[in-house]
Amino acid sequence: MSILILAEHEGGELRAATASVVTAATRIGGDVHLLVAGIDVGAVSAKAATLEGVDKVLVCEDAAYEYELAENLSALVVKHAADYSHVLLAATAAGKNVMPRVAALLDVSGISDITEIKSDDTFVRPIYAGNALATVKSSDAVKVIGVRATAFDPAPEGAASAAIEAIDRAETDAGVAFVGQELSDSDRPELTSADIVVSGGRGMQNGENFSMLDDIAGKLNAAVGASRAAVDAGFVPNEYQVGQTGKVVAPNLYLAVGISGAIQHLAGMKDSKVIVAINKDEEAPIFQVADYGLVADLFDALPELSAALDAG
Amino acid sequence: MKILVGVKRVLDYNVKARVKADKSGIELANVKMSMNPFDEIAVEEALRLKEAGHADEVIVLSIGSSQSQETIRTALAMGADRGILIETDERHEPLGIAKLFKHVVDKESPGLVVLGKQAIDDDANQTGQMLSALTGMNQATFASKVEVDGDHLKVTREVDAGLESIRVALPAIVTADLRLNEPRYAKLPNIMKAKKKPLEVIAVGDTGVNVASGLSVVEVNEPPKRDAGVIVGSVAELVDKLRNEAKVIH
User: Which of A81, B3, B162, B187 has the highest count of CB atoms within 10 angstroms of its CB?
Assistant: First the structure.
């Protein structure tokens, strides 16, 4: 068996999700090859080669892969997929954009968002917003899989370095072009890979009040998230959204403030190690999944919490 | 141009999914079913593009049991022009669904296909991308804004770090994210009118499309339950527990 992983990188760094996909690949077993495509990817490739479990790094340095255009990346993966038993991508926005194309071009079913590996052909994936877990078995010659990064610890960097090999580019698609991007500028850790996440819901009342969460997040080196209700109400942009329709997070500590705990929100955070809920409604469903609950008005509790963290 | 929109009949998003006792799937008998919420957004976007003069017909396609006709009628009541149901009682993987969509695309030649980014039952998030790969039409997934620019679309997409915009040539495939629009409610007179709009039913076997899949569901289980936690009395107690019991902050 051999496994091809499409690496994700940004600003000269591998995304943490890719290191988690490497761990998933080592659980399946066999040779693990990491494909790094883009421009100026020398440093990223060298770093990828040191990840424990990676046997080879395939590099395609080409402007066609500067932006993560799905048409071009899927063509590249398919061009080089012939000898592999598995093709793995992270189930990130970028990975989800590409994975199904690779599967369709290989005429096999895609397997979305796996959270557990039972064997080399049997996997577990959440369905119905995590309200059920489906065990699925693939008889396809190539298994094309999206891996939920939070379900696997990232592979550490090791002492040894795998071989790095340049590969050919594939045909590119003239029908699609990158125009621009508006990325949220934040010094905070990225939501899906942060150790601690502080999230606010409709109880925050408005966008300005999220500065109270920013303050606490700053003291804990945490990322700030939000419920769909808070996003729908326009308090914060969509990239803050944690839940079935947003991001899935599983930090060591998830602090839910003014979040009632709708099913769709729980689907995005219930695998967090420790969950804390602060809500003035003691009947809020969030308390059913919280390890520590505090029934309090968040406008009293947050300043107190901020002061208590300073005192630590 | 024509716009083709996909709609799927799924367990209503307000109903909690319950795993069947024999672990074969989710209990769908005698529960409320509705149009997949992302598909409502897709229908709305198609209607807005038509109302803005960019399209002259909105065709709604559903693939599912005979009851999916109700879902198509809902879209017709919102304002779509005609419906197509590919009737099947089997559950198909996104690859089979994408091949059936391609069958209709080949016949209807739409200038644009709009789908929801994912259905809230299987949460697969695959069909739009697969249809793009199979047809060669470009894809613009997770769209939060769609602008027509001659024979191209400029689409703003939700990505993990914020927003990205891309330009794709028409014909193209767009998948709708949550913030693309707020779908309208169908008004009563339109619900009555929708009953008279054309709805073609095609048996899946008559399409000649091979919908076989290499993926099978072995079993479906309840997720593990989290143990109930404790209610703390004060912020001070909370911070103490997090520092000294859970040891998740310093």
Answer: B3
The residues pairing with B122 across neighbouring beta strands, listed in sequence order, are: none
Which residues does chain B have within 8 Å of residue A96's beta carbon, measured at their own beta carbons?
125, 129, 141
Closest CA in chain B for residue A309: B239
Torsional class of B211: left (φ above 0), alpha (ψ -120 to 50), beta (otherwise): alpha
Region of B150 on the Ramachandran plot (φ > 0 left; ψ -120 to 50 alpha; else beta): left
pLDDT tens readout for residues B86-142? 999 999 999 999 999 999 999 999 999 999 999 999 999 999 999 999 999 999 999
How do residues A17-29 score in pLDDT, each as one tens digit?
999 999 999 999 9
Residue B65 sits at the chain A interface (C-beta within 8 Å)? no
Tell me if residue A17 falls in helix, strand or coil.
Answer: helix
- Per-residue CA distances from A181 to A118, A247, B157, B158 (Å): 39, 19, 9, 10
Which ipTM was obtained for this model? Answer: 0.95
Phi, psi angle pair for A63, to nearest 5°: -65, -20
Tens digit of each residue's pLDDT (9 = 90 or more) over A256-301: 999 999 988 998 999 899 999 999 999 999 999 999 999 999 999 9
- In this prediction, residue B135 carries a pLDDT of 98
Closest CA to A269 of A153, A92, A129: A129
Question: What is the structure's pLDDT at A307?
Answer: 95
Question: B216 vs chain A: nearest CA distance in angstroms?
Answer: 5
Cβ-count burial of A55 within 10 angstroms (0-12 exposed, 13-18 middle, 19+ buried)?
middle
- Which of B:216-245 have CB within 8 Å of A? 216-223, 226, 228-232, 234-236, 238-239, 241-243
- What amino acid is encoded at B127 in this protein? T
The first and second tokens of residue A147, run together, are 């891996």
Interface check for B163 against chain A (CB to CB < 8 A): the answer is yes
Distance CA A14, CA A9 (A): 4
Contacts of A242 (CB under 8 A, 6+ apart): A191, A197, A199, A225, A226, A227, A248, A249, A265, A268, A269
